[in-house]
Amino acid sequence: MSERVGGHSIRIEPAAARVTVTVDGVKVAESEAAVVLHETGLPPRYYLPANDVDAGVLRPSELHTTCPFKGEASYHSLEIDGATHRDVIWYYPDPIPEVAQIAGMMSFYPERAQILVDGRPA
Hints:
Blueprint: E1 2-5, E2 8-14, E3 19-23, E4 26-31, E5 35-39, E6 45-48, E7 58-67, E8 71-80, E9 83-91, E10 106-108, E11 114-117, E12 120-121
């Protein structure tokens, strides 16, 4: 799927790979149903179904941001071995219709988590 808004484009496609996410060496997510979102001016972002993320480490965050091309994002922190990793995950509970495909799927900041695609760094 590809959407264009005034020179800005977003394309979402199946990742067609196993996506694994670790933080501090602990696996927090793994999925074969991830999608990759390509957006003008940004690196590709992998979005994983919420069911493929370890709910036991998720901690709700009060942070919310707004993207004019996707909608309002909510965040989760992760608690791993007693350490809190703030706002590592973002997701769009109710994205704008053009990107409805990512509703409720979770994405991880690559600077705060290691994201592997079929065993290779994303």
